[in-house]
Amino acid sequence: MDRRSPHQGEGNGLSGSRIPAMPRTAIDRADARFGWMMAGPALATLFLVILFPVFWALFTSVHDYTLINPNFDSYTGAGNFRRALSDPEFRHSLGLTAFFVAAVVMLEFLLGFTVALMLNTVERLKPVYYAILLCPLLMNPVVVGLIWRMFLHPSLGIVNYLLGLVGIAPVNWLGSTKVALWTIVMVDIWHQVSFMVVLLLAGLSALPREPYEAARVDGANALQSFWHITLPLMLPVIVVTLLIRLIFAVRTYDLIYIMTRGGPGVATDLVSYFIYRTAFVSLNIGEASAMAIVLMAIVMALTAFLYRYMRSLT
Amino acid sequence: MAAITLDQVDKIYPNGVHAVRAVSLDVRDGEFMILLGPSGCGKSTTLRLIAGLESVSRGTISIGGRTVNDVDPADRDIAIVFQNYALYPHMTVAQNLAFGLKLRRIGRDEIARRIGAIAETLGIGELLGRKPRELSGGQRQRVALGRALVRQPKAFLLDEPLSNLDAKLRASMRTELIKLHRQLGNTIVHVTHDQVEAMTMGERICIMRDGVVVQTGPPMAVYREPVDTFVAGFLASPPMNLLEGRLEPAPGGGLAAGLDGVSLRLPEDQAELVHRHAGQAVIIGLRPEDFHLAPGRGQPVDAHAVATEVLGPEVILVAALGQPGNPEIMIRCPRGFSAAPGERISFHYDRREIHLFDVTTRRALPRPRA
Questions:
Q1: pTM to 2 decimals?
Q2: Where along chain B do its domains lie?
Q3: How many C-beta atoms lie closer than 10 Å to residue B207's C-beta?
Q4: Which end of chain B is more exposed for a tag (fewer CB within 10 A), N or C?
């Protein structure tokens, strides 16, 4: 798009052709000044709370900065990055996180989209369903973690009690290396699926009604309507929902901290928690910063790729 | 065979709105039928009932002799063009056209052949690769029409397809639709609230109001003999002037339609038909185009000018009929006519064009057949 001030190219019937840049008028300059004035405070805040910490982390990541010896005296270059990437524990937690994110996002999407499609046709009691759905979303993750830790307690928890009533042997939900990660996945779904439902439902209810009627007359059944109309029209909403959920899932920390502390062993040692441990248990801020930068790079690359890929489909 | 028959059709929505009441309508095979009425009169609902997008509450609808009340829209073999076109926004024009054919499992070659033919007919060949958002209103309208045509259905249902176009484009699309109908000969039901569209396009008009069919007939018949004041006041622009008056004995015998200061003598045959209303209040309907400046074309009436609207080919005079201060009426005057406010102008009213309506029922009183 070529940049033009709003009053150019209007009413001269030449909107398709290129118009030479006109000198900026006093009104244009006043508009620009006012614009900067309005955006200024927000930009300053953003810089202070986002850009500055990011650069600080970048700066820290190339120094040997520990909480035992907190100074920027020794520049290490890519040393922290090399050490982090060759650390099998870090690589393990990256892989674990990738698996966790994939599982959580896919399952929540499938479940959320199904529920949203069902709710979209509901006429009565819609506010009630909304209220119920929003309950988990309104809860603090720490509270969610604590509640589920109690529910899932191997001997005192209600889940195993209920399973016992129907003759299923108690499961060691958080204590077994095989089950623990799936338990976290399940709790995360319980907590976050309504986010998907609400966003997708908003997207669904904003879809135009007419193409569906046209498709009905054209001879499409419900499944064909879904496949040929709903899905393509929802794609932009789906992309955004998946992206947001993906980014949130990568940073999952509180659930792990409350429920397993990365255990048993390193079975649920997601990367956010691992970075936290490196920084505040091992006190190695420099290496933790390097890990955080790596994580950020991965997430950004993933986001850019997914966004481009999905956009190319529409 | 694609006659469409509605027999005592009712539509009552779950919220209790009675949108269509006992509508009976016979659309003959190959006929261009117009459903005309103000917004909210149930004409679009009637169309959606025919399409099968709404279910019938009572009565029967049949297409081509087959009762279709419980037939899925897809199996009624009709096509509908929506007011806002309802194109599939994510598909190209070619995909939009092909969608219905693909669902009907028509072969790839046949689809390509049909799309090619339709694109040529409608002049949208160079648009086939574009998405709807890249098209202008008129182009979208053509594509929507093409999507209906390409299926080769028994009948077309058009739901105000021209209302989103600008005046010039609307006029040219009107002509094109008429030509298309002549060429294809399919049954068309066209919904509109625009009486110009109705008059110019339809072989027959069905005028609806509050979910009820008020009058059905060829455009000129409806124009000449409106069954009530609603039709009289709806058709044509400016519409028929409706004035409250009285049927009084005319000097020298017979009856006259009397207004304050004006007395229009009825033709003898008309007077005979309405003589039992003599002395009663009636609504008198006078068409703006039946006032003439030249003498010899009726009986003299005076009017006092209030304002003039110059339209170019003609001038609409707003005037008080009879005395100054009387209810205002519209009179269609030839190009070049002018009048100062308050000026007295003598007209001659064609007395075979006096319409009378009952004050309470607002139904037309009988008139001699032309």
A1: 0.76
A2: 4-234, 241-358
A3: 27
A4: C
Query: Distances in Å between the alpha carbon of A82 and those of A75, A78, A88, A266, B189?
Result: 14, 6, 12, 22, 75
Q: Which CATH architecture has domain B241-358?
A: Beta Barrel (2.40)
Of A215, A218, A314, the CB nearest to B90: A314
- A310–chain B Cβ distance below 8 A for any pair: no
Tell me the three state secondary structure of residue B283. Answer: strand
Q: Rounded to whole angstroms, how far apart are CA atoms B85 and B161?
A: 7
CA-nearest residue to B104 within chain A is A219
Per-residue pLDDT tens digits for B68-96: 999 998 888 899 999 888 899 889 999 99
Is A135 within 8 Å of chain B by CB? no
Q: Would an 8 Å CB–CB cutoff place A10 in contact with chain B?
A: no
User: How distant is the Cα of A22 from the closest Cα of chain B, in angstroms?
Assistant: 29
Question: Hey, what are B26's tokens?
Answer: 């016979």
Chain A CB contacts of B99 under 8 Å are 215, 218, 220, 228
With CB atoms and an 8 Å threshold, state whether B87 touches A211. Answer: yes
Query: A208 in contact with B at a CB cutoff of 8 Å?
Result: yes
Sheet containing strand B314-321, edge to edge, reads B291-292, B344-349, B299-310, B314-321, B328-334
Q: How many CB atoms lie within 10 A of CB B310?
A: 13
CA distance A123 to chain B (A): 12
Q: Report whether pLDDT(A116) > 70.
A: yes
State the virtual CA torsion across B166, B167, B173, B177 in degrees, nearest 10. Answer: 120
Handedness of CA A71, A72, A75, A80 (dihedral sign): positive
- ipTM surpassing 0.90, yes or no? no
Q: Is pLDDT at A112 greater than 90 in this prediction?
A: yes
The contacts of residue A93 (CB under 8 Å, 6+ apart) are A266, A269, A270, A271, A273, A274
Distance (Å) from the alpha carbon of A57 to chain B's nearest alpha carbon: 43
Domains of chain A: 90-313 (1.10.3720.10)
State how far the Cα of A188 lies from the Cα of A252, in Å rounded to an integer: 9
User: Which CATH number applies to B4-234: 3.30.470.30, 3.40.30.10, 3.40.50.300, 3.40.50.720?
Assistant: 3.40.50.300
pLDDT in tens, B166-190: 888 888 888 888 988 998 888 999 9
